[in-house]
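Sequence dictates fold. Below is an illustrative record:

_____
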Amino acid sequence: MFVARLAGLAVLGPDGESIGRVRDLVLALRYDTAQPRALGLAVELSTRRRIFVPMLRVTTIEPNSVTLNTGTVSMRRLNLRPGEALAIGQILDSRVRIADPDIPELASTDATVVDLGIERNRTRDWTVSRVAVRGLRSRLGRRGGTHVVDWNTVRGLTHSALELPGQGVAQALSQFDGMRAADVANALRELPPKRRMEIAAALDDERLADVIQELPTDDQTELIGRMEVDRAADVLEAMDPDDAADLLGELPDAEAEALLQLMDPIESEPVRRLLSHSPDTAGGLMTPEPLVVTASTTIAEALARARNIDLTPASASLTFVVRPPTATPTGKYLGCVHLQALLREPPANLVGGILDTDLAHLNPEDSLETVTRYFATYNLVCGPVVDEEGHLLGAVTVDDLLDHLLPEDWRETEPQDVTPAAGASS
């Protein structure tokens, strides 16, 4: 069984109940030439938590699923021990030498690991027996062919070698295709800093910005701090202004100002405005880019704006109506229109005809408790922030609020009463 084919397979209990999906394989690398042992699977539960399932629990591996001999698994988060490594996340794309006399074209040159073949031996242990490698590109730019070789012909696949710079990321990135940013963030957290930075460097600015927004604060500042300053500024520009402001607020003032200076002034201006507010107030919580239209906008156009894929569901739930300009801080705030109200109106009607002018608004200085009570009182997931002159400054969404109500380390700690996946128990 080749490791890359395991990624994404459903993990089932003995009665067919779903437990999660395979995301990687945990290997024990030896310090001698013995075959590495496959210790267990890195399994992602429906709660996004990744747990370790020993290979001894695996009974069958089929094209679409892995079946365990029990539905009871440990719910502890995956935590690699010394001497262990993730096959897909760390070992694939590494460089090795091949001492196989039957493949002379690989002699005295580096090859790239593209997959690992594992099999169960007589003692029922799973070990790496075969390695799929690809020769490096020739001087003419042609990609080398792929060869499957015995483990005993592979040289240089050690923990110390994995710490060397220059490791590729193609195989590691392939597992992130189609994954949500929060899931990619969870995967990156499991990797050592060197590997994390290599993968981050290969992601485009937009994708990396989405991933960073899902990381704990310490990991955010570490990634940004280890980047070249120009790249860090580009990534901050791609982040939502409120998330960029939160991150910059964790950096020393001199570093934050240097990054703001490198950002495009159009992108940095709303971030600076957010930084002028205390982080635990409505002004510090808000996004400066809510859904804003004028009273002369048609229902059809407002609905089209609400369908914008870049808007969160919470932000799309409420359309704010103002006098020009519509960029925050806007002209005079006139009221809002709920998404359900838009759906009930003829497309050609104007938004100004169905304004909700009675909904109370938040002030930028309102405390976290005031904002919480506001959401609970009006059963909202989004609320306007308006200054004393009646200008719309932004909007607070329920996800912004939850980020500040939960403990600062909520992304790193386990909840006390997580419901296990079907068939699993703690």
